[in-house]
Specification:
two-stranded antiparallel sheet; 3 domains; globular; Butyryl-CoA Dehydrogenase, subunit A, domain 3; single chain; Butyryl-CoA Dehydrogenase, subunit A, domain 2; alpha+beta; 391 residues; 7-stranded mixed β-sheet; 12 helices; Butyryl-Coa Dehydrogenase, subunit A, domain 1
């Protein structure tokens, strides 16, 4: 394996970092999340038209750039550095791969080109806040009753004369209030022959209700989605392996999120180092004190270890779960220490350090926790048998 970045990948990183430095400062981020959409549509259009970001990992046949998930992960590292609110994660990382994997040819031809162009946004709606389980990050999507299980709760789908009708509710849906298209995971078939399928629901579909939720991380908008006898279009013609497609998507999600978390942790550490260089106490910069140097050195080592894991996962997505666990743990530690090392000003709610700290906490709630990510990775690797470490 050649882990060196190509000239094209370095150019993606450089161009994106320059653009976000101009258009995604902490002030820009706060202004964007206060809008109805929760992001800056003008910046999203620029990212789409200038860099082709939404279609970076989509095939050229559908209007994409034809790059790999590794390129998408590198781009996510830069958006993570700036905490740029955008539909990238929900549209290009969650929804688009599922449409590409399960959709009928007519569905792929109709949906993927506008997604690649940035003119169509999408998301995945999973009932009960079980996104991590549905994606195979903390459990097996083929097991359990995360989509409703044929009982009350979740989202239920029943066949009707003209297609399907959906009824139920899904909370904590990323960009669920603003996405043009929802991929809704719904239970069908009754209790005895239950299975989970994915359905396409347009934003203007009758019976669909959406309400933006108050979220811990304002840069990662979430919504509650209600479906009341809402028409839905089945994704694919014979979607027999929905759990397999969800798990495959989950590996890419873990890889991208790991890189994004590394970018956020790096930015938080850089801002902290800059602060301790200039903040003086007892007549000298606080960064000159040995105790502060040791704490920063420990953070740097943890960050570099997480970056190495994230880059490895970019070339081997099967390692995404462990990389995500390490990256989330590093982000949590770095952002917590950033608040401490900023002193009194770091504890004010308005300080930018809290944007990074909330991202760390919210991502672990949505896609973790860390110990469950590691337990799932150990289970998939067959490390444990009957509670005993395998030889």
């Amino acid at each position: 394996m050649d882990a060196a970045f190509t000239a094209e990948q370095d150019e993606i990183r450089r161009t994106l970092r320059e653009l976000l430095a101009k258009r995604s400062s902490p002030g820009d981020v706060r202004a964007a999340v206060a809008t109805a959409d929760g992001y800056d549509p003008a910046l999203w259009a620029q990212l789409s038209e200038r860099l082709g970001l939404p279609g970076l990992a989509l095939p050229e046949a559908y209007g994409g750039v034809g790059c790999t998930p590794a390129d998408l992960a590198l781009a996510a590292e830069e958006t993570g550095r700036a905490l740029t609110p955008s539909p990238l994660l929900a549209t290009s990382v969650l929804a688009a791969p599922l449409i590409a994997a399960l959709g009928a040819e007519a569905q792929r031809a109709a949906l993927l080109p506008p997604i690649a162009a940035g003119t169509l946004t999408a998301t995945l709606a999973v009932p009960g806040g079980h996104l991590a389980t549905a994606l195979g990050l903390t459990g097996d999507p083929a097991e359990g009753q995360w989509a409703g299980g044929g009982r009350a709760g979740g989202v239920q789908a029943r066949p009707v004369r003209d297609g399907w009708q959906l009824y139920g509710e899904a909370a904590q849906v990323l960009d669920g209030h603003s996405a043009d298209l929802l991929l809704v995971a719904a239970h069908t078939g009754g209790f005895a022959r239950s299975r989970t399928l994915l359905f396409l629901v347009r934003a203007d579909t009758p019976g669909l209700g959406r309400q933006r939720q108050t979220a811990l991380d304002v840069t990662r908008p979430q919504a509650t989605v209600e479906l009341r006898d809402c028409p839905g279009e089945l994704l694919g013609t014979d979607p027999a392996d929905v759990p397999g497609a969800l798990a495959a998507t989950g590996r890419t999600v873990a890889t991208v999120l790991a890189a994004e978390s590394v970018g956020a942790a790096a930015a938080a550490l850089e801002r902290t180092v800059e602060y301790v260089r200039t903040r003086e106490q007892f007549g000298r910069p606080i960064g000159s004190f040995q105790a502060v140097k040791h704490r920063l050195a420990d953070l740097y080592v943890q960050l570099q270890a997480a970056r190495s894991a994230a880059y490895y996962a970019a070339w081997d997505p099967d390692a995404g779960g462990l990389a995500l666990a390490q990256a989330l743990e590093a982000l949590r530690t770095v952002t917590g220490e950033a608040i401490q090392l900023h002193g009194g000003i770091g504890f004010t709610w308005e300080h930018e350090a809290h944007l990074y700290f909330k991202r760390a906490a919210a991502d672990e709630l949505l896609f973790g926790p860390v110990h469950r990510l590691r337990a799932r990775a150990a289970e998939e690797a067959g490390l444990f048998a009957d509670g005993v470490v395998a030889p």
